């Protein structure tokens, strides 16, 4: 019994090791995202805001955010860099971790009546062991275009948390002209908006106050000249249109996926004392259903810069981004400088999954063989005893013969001893996007600080 218990424990350990190997191979990337402000060296903006923040103690967090968003849409130039991480949770495990980042550049004041009147460039990219994406949107002189590449054209490095485009010519192009609605319904990522949530009315240029659940206190860092505050939004009212966008994106890869509940939307905001936004930290969560119920967690840091001549991301350099491939060149140089090494490919992933499964199967077969041999020996022993008992017990010599046969025959205790020896013998033979990148044109630095999108 003791040996059998030890054997069962060994099988359980083998199964645990196999599962660890399997999940280790399939494990998502480490959910660290954009911890460094890429515009840190740019400092406080010199640009004048359209609406200056004259702070008083009576002002609330919503009052500040209202001014910050107003200044975003009314600025002559702005660039924002987004570094995020998206986790898809199922069964308590991150099943599809992805770094998501990119940047938006806008030159010209936003006009709600004609959103394409300002030139814009938008890069959206993501990297993970399960999925990789790269897509760009470009608005020049009112003409809207888009291009995207297949994941097979993208390398991902888990070490640097970055992606690399293999062939700049391998892209699919789509011309949208002046049809922004069609673009948003297809691409599902408006290049003209600061965020995709339903919290600011760009027509009235006002914050939608009814979308707010709770406002935190406003704090001020005099040394930095920065105000900080937190706002929690109603997860339903603030995401009505956003949910449509998410579901449209989900349907690109998973037909029938739907959002069952949006559970959280929080913004932690930092604003320069002038009224221009410095940083927005986003935290959102929603539940959705595909083949099984899943939870999606998304965190992102969005950084802003307002002085075109100091950021290194002038819109004039991106007007011909689809032919000059400026974003690809900067991205790939940053990837190479970070020493990125592509994570394991499809064959390696298959091997990493199949091998642990084979370990479990072999262990199960070994157990079956072991107990099968033991049962066979027991049956033989029982047959020997039955044969001895059938001899005529009236003969003295027969009794002597049976005794001799019993003494010389196979005994159950001997069989158990042999089995234990076999177990002992079996036990004896049995035995597993780089560091912060420069923003300067000279070294080809990218606006990514190690995340991939």
Describe this structure as you would to a colleague.
With 453 residues, this protein is α+β, with helices and mostly antiparallel strands. 34% of the residues lie in helices and 27% in strands. The chain contains 10 helices and 17 strands. The strands form 3 sheets. Strands 1, 2, 3, 4, 5, 6, 9, 12, 13, 14, 15, 16 and 17 form a 13-stranded antiparallel β-sheet that branches. A two-stranded antiparallel ribbon has the order 7-8. β10 (200-201) and β11 (206-207) form a beta hairpin. α1 runs antiparallel to α8 (346-389) and α8 (346-389) runs antiparallel to α10. The longest helix is centred in the C-terminal third of the chain and has 44 residues, at 346-389. The two termini are 56 Å apart. Residues 16-34, 343-353, 391-444 and 449-453 have low confidence and may be disordered.
Q: Could you tell me the strand content as a percent range?
A: 25-35%
| Number of extended strands | 17
- Please bin the fraction of helical residues: 25-40%
| Major sheet details | 13 strands, antiparallel
| Overall pLDDT confidence | 79
> End-to-end distance, in Å?
56 Å
How does the overall form come out from the CA principal axes? elongated
Instruction: Find the structural class using helix and strand composition.
Output: alpha+beta
């Amino acid at each position: 019994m003791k040996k059998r218990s030890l054997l069962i424990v060994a099988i359980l350990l083998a199964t645990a090791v196999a599962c660890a190997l399997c999940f280790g191979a399939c494990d998502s990337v480490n959910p660290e995202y954009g911890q460094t402000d890429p515009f840190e060296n740019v400092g406080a903006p010199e640009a004048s805001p359209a609406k200056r923040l004259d702070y008083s103690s009576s002002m609330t967090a919503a009052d500040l955010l209202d001014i910050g968003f107003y200044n975003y849409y009314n600025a002559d130039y702005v660039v924002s860099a987004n570094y995020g991480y998206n986790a898809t949770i199922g069964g308590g495990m991150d099943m599809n971790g992805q770094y998501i980042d990119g940047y938006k550049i806008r030159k010209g004041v936003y006009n709600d009546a004609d959103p394409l009147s300002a030139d814009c460039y938008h890069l959206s990219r993501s990297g993970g062991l399960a999925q990789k994406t790269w897509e760009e949107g470009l608005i020049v002189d009112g003409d809207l275009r888009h291009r995207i590449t297949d994941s097979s054209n993208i390398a991902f490095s888990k070490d640097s948390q970055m992606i690399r485009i293999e062939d700049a010519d391998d892209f699919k192009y789509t011309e949208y002209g002046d049809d922004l609605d069609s673009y948003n319904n297809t691409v599902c990522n408006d290049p003209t908006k600061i965020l995709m949530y339903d919290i600011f009315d760009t027509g009235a240029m006002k914050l939608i106050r009814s979308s707010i659940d709770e406002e935190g206190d406003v704090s001020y860092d005099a040394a930095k000249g920065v105000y900080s505050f937190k706002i929690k939004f109603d997860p339903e009212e603030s995401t009505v249109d956003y949910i449509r966008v998410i579901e449209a994106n989900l349907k690109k890869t998973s037909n029938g996926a739907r959002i069952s509940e949006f559970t959280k939307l929080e913004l932690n905001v930092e604003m320069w004392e002038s009224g221009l936004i410095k940083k927005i930290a986003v935290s959102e969560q929603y539940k959705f259903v595909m083949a099984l119920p899943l939870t999606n967690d998304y965190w992102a840091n969005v950084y802003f810069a307002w002085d075109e001549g100091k950021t290194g991301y002038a819109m004039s350099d991106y007007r011909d981004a689809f032919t000059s491939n400026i974003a690809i060149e900067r991205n790939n140089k940053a990837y190479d400088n970070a020493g990125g090494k592509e994570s394991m490919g499809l064959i390696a992933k298959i091997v990493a999954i199949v091998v642990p499964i084979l370990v479990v199967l072999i262990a199960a077969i070994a157990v079956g063989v072991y107990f099968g041999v033991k049962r066979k020996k027991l049956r033989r022993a029982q047959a020997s005893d039955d044969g001895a008992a059938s001899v005529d017990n009236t003969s003295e010599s027969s009794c002597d013969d049976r005794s001799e046969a019993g003494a010389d025959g196979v005994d159950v205790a001997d069989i158990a001893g042999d089995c234990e020896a076999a177990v002992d013998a079996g036990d004896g033979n049995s035995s597993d996007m780089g560091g912060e990148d420069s923003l300067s044109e000279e070294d080809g630095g990218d606006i990514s600080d190690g995340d991939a999108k």
